[in-house]
Amino acid sequence: MDASGSQQQQQQQQQLDDDWDDFSDSELLDISTELQSIDSQQALVDKTDGKQSMVGFDSPCESSTSMHDCTKESSGHQTGDVRGLKRKSLHEDSLNPMQRFSKRHLSVTLLCDQSWCEMKTVYNILKPHVKRKEMQCAEVQMGIDIHLSRELEIQDVIHVDIRTREDAEALKLLNMLNMIPLLETGKCVREFPVFGVQEGVFIMGVIDELMYNQKGELVLNELKTRKQHSMPSSAQDKVNCFQVALYKLLFDGLVRGEVKKDHILDHLKLRSHQVLGAGVQAHAKKIGYHVATFEDAVDAFLLTMTCCDLPCIDLLQLEYYHQGSKGSIGIRVVPFDEAQLRVDLKGYLEYWTGQREPKGVDIEDAWKCRSCLYEQTCDWVKNRLQISNQKAAGVN
Ligand code: SF4
How much is the pLDDT for 344? Predict the structure, then answer.
């Protein structure tokens, strides 16, 4: 092999090593919530006659009565219920993916996954146990531990009893209300939630860290823990840059007052008059807010956001940290190209709003498939092979 061949092989190996190599606990917690939501939806689907199948195309592992029993699935031993499920093409299904997967919102994490490979994101939703397994690996757990200990360096954990979805969302708003004055007085805050509506879709995320630098700029810092003691490949870097840019878009929308009460209530299907639990009300009182209903919490939040002195984010940076040596690898300052971000985002959301079918990686990114758990069963790969076989047969 010549030098360029060997260099290419090294680059490809680094790219393969990079799949799921950068971890952020807030993202992973988001995934856990999503997996739970899919699990509960699956339970709902299992109780029906299967007419509303979650499967929009030939998945590698069809929807079954037990999404967690991979042995049965891989051995082809499927239940009668599975055989009864009709495979539907996306064209025949009147529901768009948001509706089909019962999603009220999308997380930044999910959109980052989608920017790596859209097809894989959809397979992950259809097979939550595969994603769960991926999250249980030692590197992911170590990433979560590092993030958690960082968060605990500056924030205490307070246990608040929540009983409804409105309680949970109100608590998130109260946490933000608690962090805003800290940030305004120059303190560093971690795990700051952000949300907003883009292209008609509600998007939520959690910013790792916000603080002012010595120049007085508001800096967003995203910690990425890595197994490898090296900066990420360009493919992984692209995903990470997209992530922080999207956080900025959402944060800036919040401080500019672009998020309205109806966005929160309508998209998330929350009850405005729901009385908040005693624990949530007591916690609100402790931090200086008197709220009785969910609407009170939303009003207090939106009023504070419009009156506070927070500016838009000035600087985006990615901080890479080596898991093994527990030392810094480097910091990457990320340029913010809003026009490009909006183009990319629009393209991703077109799938979720049913304007097109899901797609796999472009041919130049086919190396991603080599480390993908769905490689053997992926329709995108099968189609690609079929086309290249047909071309080869045509040539012969
Ligand atoms: S095999 Fe390739 S195209 Fe298919 S889901 Fe995996 S990465 Fe995407």
Answer: 98
